[in-house]
Amino acid sequence: MTEESSPALEREWSGDGCPAGPFARRSFLHAAAAGLAGATAGTALGDREAQADTPVAVAARAGAVPFEGRHQAGIATPPQQDAIFLSCDVTADDSDGLTDLFRTLTDRARFLTAGGTPPKVPPDSVPSDNGIVGPTVEPDNLTLTLSLGASLFDDRYGLASRKPVQLVTMQPFIHDELNSSICHGDLLIQICADHRDTTVHAMVDILNSTKGAMKLRWRLDGLRNPPRHDRVRRDWFGFKHGITNPDTADTGRMDQVVWTQPKSAEPDWAAGGTYHVVRIVHFFIDAWQKVPVAQQERILGRRKVSGAPVYATSDDASDRMVPVYTNDPQGLLTPINSHIRLANPQTPETAATSAVLRRGYDYDHGLDARELDLGHAFVSFQRELNTYIAMQTRLEAEALVPYISPRGGGYFFAVPGVRDEHDYFASGLLT
After folding, report:
1. 389: Cβ–Cβ under 8 A, 6 or more apart, which residues?
2. DSSP 8-state assignment for residue 186
3. Mean predicted confidence (pLDDT) in 117-141
4. What cofactors does this protein use (predicted)?
């Protein structure tokens, strides 16, 4: 399974539950401001007034991805090297508690992505930071992206009438082997940064800051293998990362393919957001390595060395060459059931369901039932969830099926961006 991206991105690419307890952001933050003994690390960090650096100063640091904007960071942002996906279930008592949760997540994301020095505390007090990255938190191109699952719109918080119209719980496709323990969730928090310690630091901070308001349902750690001497970034199947994606610099195209638009069928609050898909796909590495390279190329529809379409015979051929199927109706060059051809058959009937913004990661979970558990976290963003569902339905017939096993993930809606320092995640939904 190959990952696809735009040339612009390619140039820039460099479940245990939380302990339950009372959760109230106001008292939680006020305690930090007052310096009460015994305040949790997340509490102390949550108070922006207690931080040593001003928001303006820390935002200017090198490597900081702007947190505020019409859209969330971590979507059109060039993919960073490391990622953690946290699926959580909300345990807040009521809608006020849910609002407090989202405000706290906003406060933490704003500080962590900008960086700075956590407040100092007396030596005999609980630390104000977990210390994983040292005394100063560097931005490290960190992004935290919040998305909502269909289950959040049940009757707990009175949100049912405001659910995005296409948001549903992910159902298995024909060949899926879904494990319920790594599926779905009320919230998805996507944490991406250039280095592993940054994502782990952010994860620990977020989970400590939200105890009692949400609990972890499942977690997925992702990585992007570095480019080698041939400047190629490859997945566990040995194929090239990064082929085609909508140009994230093209505002019109992104509005067409990715971003939910105002005055559409979606609720007003959702404008500027996008549907967020995560699929945890296990690779049968041993079986794949027994397949001749020529057959691997026909299964995926691209050359293994270059990433170019299969009609290109040179190892130096550009992966930017566009596969053309009009002169190959019988699939003699690019098989009809190859991965890339089913994903985008280039027919008028499938044109509307062939473009999504992919932003995937590989994973390595060690051993599972005595076999290597290597795979791919397929991640995509699209204006309509039905676009992805139609594409994946076509892929039920792909030749890659015997070599992969989709086992988890979910469908979510990435909320619009936080507009300014007074705004917070999903404020339009909750007000």
Report:
1. none
2. S
3. 93
4. heme b
Report whether pLDDT(242) > 80. Answer: no
**String of DSSP letters for 64-126:** PPP--SSS-SSSSSPP-SEEEEEEEEE--SSHHHHHHHHHHHHHHHHHHHH-BPPPP--TTS-
Model pTM?
Answer: 0.86
Domain boundaries, the chain: 1-431
- Region 222-235: what's the mean pLDDT? 88
Collect all residues with Cβ–Cβ distance below 8 Å to 341 and sequence separation of at least 6: 301, 323, 325, 331, 334, 335
Pick left, alpha or beta for residue 260 (phi over 0 → left; psi -120 to 50 → alpha; otherwise beta): beta
Gap between the Cα atoms of 148 and 189, Å rounded: 9
Higher-scoring residue by pLDDT: 12, 270: 270
Please give the mean pLDDT across all residues of the chain: 87
Sign of CA dihedral 160, 165, 167, 169: positive
Check: CB of residue 310 under 8 Å from CB of residue 302: yes
